[in-house]
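Researcher: Please generate the 3D structure of the following complex. Treat every line as part of one assembly.
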Amino acid sequence: MRHAFLDHHSQTESPIHHLDARAKIIVFFTFILIGVSSPPTSFLLFSLLAIALISIALLARLPLGHLLKKVLVVLPFLLVVALSIPFMKKDAVGGGYNLGLGGLSISRSGLWILWNVVIKSCLGVFSAILLSSTTSFPQLVRGMEKLGSPKILTMLTSFMYRYSFILIDEMHRMKRARDSRCFGGRWFWQSKVIGDMIGTLFLRSFHRGERVYMAMLSRGYHGTMPETKARRLGLGEVLFLSLIPFLLFLRIYLR
Amino acid sequence: MTSNKVIEIDHLSYDYPDGTPALRDIHLEVSPHESVAILGPNGAGKSTLLYHLNGTLMGDGKVKILGIPVEKNNLKEIRRKVGLVFQSPEDQLFCPTVFDDVAFGPLNMGLDEEEVWQRVQKALEMMGLRGFEGRSAHHLSEGEKKRVALATVLSMDSEILALDEPTDNLDPAGSRMLIERIRSIPQTKVIVTHHLDVAFDLCERAVLLYGGRKIEDLSMGELLRDRALLERFGFDADYARWMYERSARFQSAGLK
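Model: Done. Output below.
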């Protein structure tokens, strides 16, 4: 079975994909910070950020439609929360709009908050998706490590990445085996089966963990993961990183 | 006095943690560049014996690798000398990319990066996997996984290769390709397998285990002609005979 749900498109060939992961992590994180820290009225800044992100996506030869769809997938969760905000700001009803639906009214400041949440999360999620679509997961983890993220965390993350696929496959196989022998039944009975499956999955993973550890020891593991030196940042990375002062400039002078 | 044997096992016995006997009084010597097949039914102790070669398991009795006893203090050195490939590549390959996995052993050996890079390239080349460096193990086919698993120990340049069911789970074509690749490796090999043809293609000597005991230790040719022994172990004696005669014909024609 094949899965690539974490880093879809990360194997595409483009100048952005070839950049060092560290540069991309820093730049996209700056995008998120600048976006989040701006006042909701800075429309020009938001549109410039959006244009910059879209240009990067085009330069990375990523299908825009696909990226936007991914942004939409995250939005419903946010909208459920954000949509209720305009109705809850009772204090500013005077400045708002009465819908005439059983006294339902929308407040102006509530609308501002909604706009604020929506635009900032859209930009933030879009940046994060751009990062994960232009950087493969292993490179991302290595980049985090070189940027000073604790080694134990990056090690756990890379093992989780490697074995999540196997775990999912194993779960699918167990589910198939269950479905081919199960002909419905009451909810209560089903829940017992699911409990058993989770237990079995845990035991199997536990034993696999032991076998993997044996395989690591067999190849000379002695408590610390070996690491390779990071490659030096080239002209491309420097150019890409120079986006940061530009973004800071925009943040400071555009209101 | 130094011995010219690369593997010396003497009076080795091992019980599983729950007390079930797994190996009983095993004696085995392997010479340099020999290829030995370990055959036997499920539960005969084949893999258990293999795990003793690099100290993954340690039982009662003596195990020496290139004259060095397998003991806690020597494990680091022993594991440089014995490359053990586990049966499931999912256990063998635990790194995010093929490169990381193949480089894991050499990096742990403390080699400098240039050397590691060269060894990884060489090992991947030997397994026909050039250009696979950045791939993730879960995106590979079963045959590719098996070959990467082998590359992870080839890069360590060990004197002895211990392979647990190398062709397990492979289709005939994948199995054939892997056998060709393994055959091209000059090191001493100890191969656990269920398949007589794999053993015949890769090894000149067979060790038969049953119930944790060594039953026979003989040349591949002798085994293929011993109908009673083959049938006792559930092998197809007619097929074995055919394999033997075919290879004899090839040999007399100077082909093999």
